[in-house]
Design a protein that fits this description.
The complex is a heterodimer of chains A (about 260) and B (about 240). Chain A is mostly helical. Chain A has helices at about 1-15, 15-40, 50-60, 65-80, 85-90, 95-130, 140-170, 170-195, 200-210, 235-255. Chain A is built from 10 helices and no strands. Chain B has one domain (about 5-235): P-loop containing nucleotide triphosphate hydrolases (Rossmann fold). Classes of the chains: A mainly alpha (about 260), B alpha/beta (about 240).
Chain lengths: ~260, ~240
């Protein structure tokens, strides 16, 4: 299995798409964090950077790393059908479930890199803004480390879920659009309409792992909703892992068994 | 002794029967042409042999095992099925590096096969900029990477220029001369007639003829005439 994972990682590192997605993730994260930090303390903006609430919402805002990790996961699996490379992949490794498992592992590893890169960016930008205003950092080193771990785990699990989504929906364009629509529109709508369901939505659970306050990583109507508690670390991890495993089982029994013609 | 054994193979796509109760064998050390008009079921048959398409009935084996059961499939079967099965953003060398890792062969073999197929100078270029002929050559390099016993090729001459076709002919003959087995599908009858010793002819998923080229052309017909006679009779 180690060799299969190395093959998938070699595939990832040998195309420009991977680096382009990582650059996009970092660029969007910088833009998002700078805009949010600039609005801190203003009406309708995040809390002021003088206290832990404002600093937390900026430093844990590496959400584009999470979203782009899922997009990368989608390309890992659906790209095989888009470019007709599934033929060579399955000629080399006829067991399609082993290929799916290797792709899931590669998606998790690459996703973790995206999550850590996003966190490094938000942490750096956040510290620059806090320092530039001469404020005291109100968050301890242990908490900062926990958030780093959360970005890593959340993005890794979204990377795996992306692989599963790309296996279930072979059209790469449809699957990538689906990821953006789900994270930016659907979770926002569901989260805004049904607050009690909100912590159990996958993207929201991943942001909870990253330490993001509920709502500050959302888009649209669910951004202002409050009064709901995010899932604890272990529960959010278990939820995302369960979604990945359930989706992988469905894919293993349906789409990945289809003829490659 | 047979190396490829097809028995009672059947595949339907909705109302269309692509392959129907097809049986034939391929002997080791031969170059066997797998001939038929467009839509005859050649590609579907080869994909069933390689485990990419699940048959509705029948079996297809290499060395007595179905493709999925082969312990090291790339060391036993090298296949070229379509010239477009490469990531366009990947260089030829990066593609072969992945395939070498998949086949568990030494990376030094990459330069050998690049030289063999005449792509050494283009190895650092992205495949998206390759001509059809160059892609065919890269496909052959991929198939030969693990030094397989059997080559299974689907229309490998497509896109090759006359020099490339002559090179391919020599490659296949040399491969068989060293004990390898080649099953090559084609609709370019005049071309393939210069390379093959045995032939399997199918039409509409059915076997029309199997045997040596010499036996098929014993009545004075050339391979092309024999082929058209068989396919005309099948239509009647």
């Amino acid at each position: 299995m180690t060799r299969l994972v190395r093959i998938e990682l070699l595939k990832l590192t040998s195309t420009r798409l991977t680096y382009g997605l990582l650059a996009t993730s970092v660029g969007l994260t910088v833009l998002w964090t700078v805009l949010e930090a600039s609005r801190a303390g203003q009406p309708n903006g995040p809390a002021a950077l003088t206290g832990s609430a404002g600093q937390t919402s900026i430093i844990t805002g590496g959400v584009w790393g999470l979203i782009l990790a899922a997009v990368l996961g989608v390309t890992i699996s659906s790209g095989e059908f888009r470019h007709h490379t599934a033929t060579l992949t399955y000629l080399a490794v006829p067991s399609r479930t082993r290929v799916l498992a290797a792709k899931g592992a590669a998606g998790g590893i690459a996703g973790a890199v995206f999550g850590l890169a996003g966190y490094a960016v938000t942490l750096t930008v956040g510290l620059i803004f806090v320092g530039a205003h001469g404020y005291h950092l109100a968050i301890g080193a242990g908490t900062l480390a926990d958030w780093g771990l959360g970005h890593l785990v959340g993005a890794a699990l979204l990377g795996v879920i992306g692989v599963v989504v790309g296996s279930l929906i072979r059209s790469q364009l449809a699957a990538v659009i689906g990821v953006f629509v789900w994270t930016i529109i659907i979770e926002s709508l569901i989260g805004g309409l049904f607050g009690s369901v909100r912590p159990y939505l996958p993207y929201t659970a991943a942001t909870a792992l990253a330490g993001t306050p509920l709502g500050s990583a959302s888009f649209g109507p669910s951004r202002g909703v409050s009064g709901v508690v995010p899932l604890p670390f272990a529960a959010a991890t278990a939820l995302l892992a369960a979604i990945a495993v359930a989706g992988a089982l469905v894919a293993a029994r349906t789409t990945i068994r289809r003829d490659v013609s | 002794m047979t190396i490829i054994h097809i028995q009672g193979l059947r595949k339907r796509y909705g109302p269309v029967t692509a392959v129907d109760d097809l049986s034939f064998d391929v002997q080791p050390g031969t170059v066997t042409g797998f001939l038929g008009p467009n839509g005859a079921g050649k590609t579907t048959t080869l994909r069933m042999l390689l485990g990419l398409v699940a048959p509705d009935a029948g079996t297809a084996t290499v060395n007595g095992l179905s493709y999925g059961d082969l312990p090291e499939p790339l060391h036993q079967d090298g296949a070229v099925l379509e010239a477009s099965s490469f990531h366009p953003g990947r260089t030829a060398r990066a593609h072969l590096r992945i395939q070498a890792l998949a086949a568990d062969v030494d990376q030094s073999r990459i330069e050998d096969v690049l030289d063999l197929v005449g792509l050494a100078d283009a190895a650092g270029r992205r495949v998206g900029g390759f001509s059809l002929g160059m892609r065919q050559r890269l496909g052959l390099a991929t198939a030969l990477l693990a030094d397989p016993e059997v080559l299974i090729l689907d229309e490998p001459a497509n896109g090759l220029d006359p020099e490339g076709i002559r090179w391919l002919r020599g490659l296949l003959r040399g491969f068989a001369a060293e004990g390898g087995t080649v099953l090559v599908s084609s609709h370019m009858l005049a071309e393939v007639a210069q390379t093959i010793e045995s032939v399997v002819i199918i039409d509409r998923g059915h076997l029309l003829a199997q045997g040596s080229v010499a036996a098929l052309t014993a009545n004075g017909n050339d391979l092309e005439e024999a082929f058209f006679q068989l396919t005309r009779e099948a239509v009647r």
